[in-house]
Specification:
Blueprint: H1 3-10, E1 12-14, H2 21-24, E2 26-27, E3 30-31, E4 36-39, H3 43-56, E5 60-63, E6 77-80, E7 87-90, E8 93-97, H4 102-110, E9 114-115, H5 126-132, H6 139-142, E10 149-155, E11 161-165, H7 170-176, E12 185-192, E13 194-195, E14 199-206, H8 210-223, E15 228-235, E16 245-253, H9 257-268, E17 273-281, H10 283-286, E18 301-309, H11 314-326, E19 330-336, H12 340-343, E20 358-366, H13 373-387, H14 403-409, H15 412-425
Parallel strand pairs: 4-6, 5-6
Antiparallel strand pairs: 1-4, 2-3, 7-8, 8-12, 9-13, 10-11, 10-12, 14-16, 14-17, 15-16, 15-19, 18-20, 19-20
Helix pairs in contact: 8-9, 8-11, 11-13
Bound molecules: flavin-adenine dinucleotide.
């Protein structure tokens, strides 16, 4: 189809050679090589783009906030939803466009004394984060982002527009809570928000023995009220996500500093833990701003992975800290789960492991000149030992759409059920640029 015809049919279309091409094909961590980028500004545009891609045999990458590491599909259609970013609050219900970002949602809700648990970064998309699960700063208070989802508007692979809720399409809703972007294009998400008058933001330094600090953190979280969700991070200087070194951060869901301090007391008294800041803040102010992608200094590769841990045992802590100690370019991230996350039964959503109490991400940045072949091999084998302690992988924190991830992410019964849902909604696997579930 000629460019003008395409533009008339699909909204704004950008192709190689167009002035906007280099911006349009960029995503958070790279620059892709799609055949074209279709920027949709209505549900009708989405329908037209899906129908066009299906007819022409182009695979589709649905782009919500553009923060996945697999940003585009080479030679395919990138369907950019950034213009579908309306956020409308009605009582405790919030309707969010399929291309909205979490910072905008948090601001609209905070103005009404409400909140949702999202991710930790303002520019991350509601689309990818929710469909993959969404481990947020208040995951213990309110569960995953997808647990707060009550309905969607979805454009199907055959170009229909449907409204789905648990009452009308229970299997589809089950799959959308953790099964990723496999089942259609979500043009609108409906969430049920929670009353929230602010959060107590916690920033602690870890200046002593990391094994002792993580042990104290684990013991505190085992007893803590669900309002408290904490993260441990130990990062090297080249990681843009946080200041170098070990720290514990998180939020208490609510503005009551006394209750937050009471829950944190044993941790604040643990050896080597230093209070850096602790106080009530509006939730939108706590969300991080991720640096823009810089083509001059792309993110280095990552040797490692993530896993969901049923228990943070002393053995696991020792493996994690040893990994970090043996590699100067390594990162260790631990996010507390349990609470409302664990209230949801395993079979009630497609998310991999509801009995996990901790999420762990561990790896070494593959910085040219820093990671020798020997160090890379060691990082891989050390990571293998940590991986063996876990039960499932969280797809949103993986760095590619390598098919092995999808098979490792889901228990076999979950994968079988996802494949049946895929067969119903996308039998030709048009939506394959994701952790792909193949139609049964
Ligand atoms: C800086 C940063 C911070 C992060 N923090 C967190 C965090 O705190 N918690 C967490 O759980 N994850 C976090 N993540 C991971 C994040 O959840 C994933 O990268 C997620 O894929 C981002 O969603 P997106 O819409 O921005 O990405 P995109 O690249 O736009 O989309 C990723 C995939 O989601 C699907 N998709 C997106 N939107 C739609 C839609 N409307 N309809 C259908 N399919 C869609 C597509 O299959 C697409 O391939 C973070 C990532 C980054 C880069």
């Amino acid at each position: 189809m000629a460019n003008d015809d395409l533009t008339a049919a699909l909204g704004t279309v950008i192709r190689p050679g167009d002035p906007d091409w280099d911006v349009a094909r960029r995503f958070h961590s790279g620059i892709g090589e799609p055949a074209l980028v279709a920027r949709a500004s209505s549900t009708d545009d989405v329908r037209a783009a899906v129908t066009f891609a299906a007819a022409e045999g182009h695979p589709v990458m649905v782009r919500g906030g553009g923060h996945s590491a697999w940003g585009t599909v080479p030679g395919g259609v990138t369907l950019d939803l950034a213009a579908l970013a309306d956020v409308a609050v009605h009582g405790t219900r919030v309707r969010v466009g399929g291309g909205a970002q979490w910072g905008a949602v948090a601001r609209a809700l905070a103005a009404r004394g409400l909140g949702l648990s999202s991710g930790d970064t303002a520019s991350v998309g509601v689309g990818g984060l929710t469909l993959g699960g969404g481990i947020g700063l208040m995951v213990r208070a309110w569960g995953l982002a997808c647990d707060q989802l009550v309905g969607v508007q979805l454009v199907t692979a055959d170009g229909r527009v449907i409204e789905a809720t648990d009452a009308t399409e229970p299997e589809l809703m089950w799959a959308l809570r953790g099964g990723g972007g496999n089942f259609g294009v979500v043009t609108r998400f409906d969430f049920e928000a929670h009353p929230l008058d602010g959060v107590v933001a916690v920033e602690l330094g870890v200046e002593g023995d990391a094994r002792v600090a993580i042990g104290a953190l684990r013991d505190v979280m085992a007893q803590a009220p669900r309002e408290l969700t904490l993260t441990y991070m130990d990062v090297p200087p080249m990681d843009p996500s946080a200041p170098a070194g070990a720290s514990i951060s998180g939020v208490w869901a609510g503005a009551d500093e006394d209750r937050a301090r009471e829950a944190l007391a044993p941790l604040l008294e643990a050896p080597g833990i230093v209070e850096r800041s602790l106080g009530a803040r509006p939730y939108p102010d706590v969300l991080l701003e991720a640096p823009e992608f810089d083509p001059e200094s792309p993110m280095p590769g990552f040797v490692g992975g993530n896993t969901l841990l049923r228990a943070l045992t002393d053995d696991a802590i020792d493996h994690l800290v040893s990994f970090r100690e043996s590699n100067p370019a390594s990162v260790v991230l631990l996010r507390s789960l349990g609470g409302a996350f664990g209230d949801v039964a395993q079979h009630a959503s497609a998310f991999p492991a509801r009995d996990a109490t901790w999420f762990a991400m561990v790896g070494a940045f593959d910085v040219p000149g820093m990671l020798s072949d020997e160090a890379r091999a060691r990082a891989l084998s050390d990571w293998g030992a940590i991986d063996a302690l876990g039960s499932g992988v969280y797809g949103n924190f993986t760095t590619s759409t390598d098919p092995t991830w999808a098979t490792r992410m889901y228990p076999s019964a979950t994968m079988a059920r996802l494949r049946a849902v895929k067969r119903r909604w996308d039998p030709g696997n048009l939506f394959s640029r994701n952790h792909n579930v193949r139609p049964a």
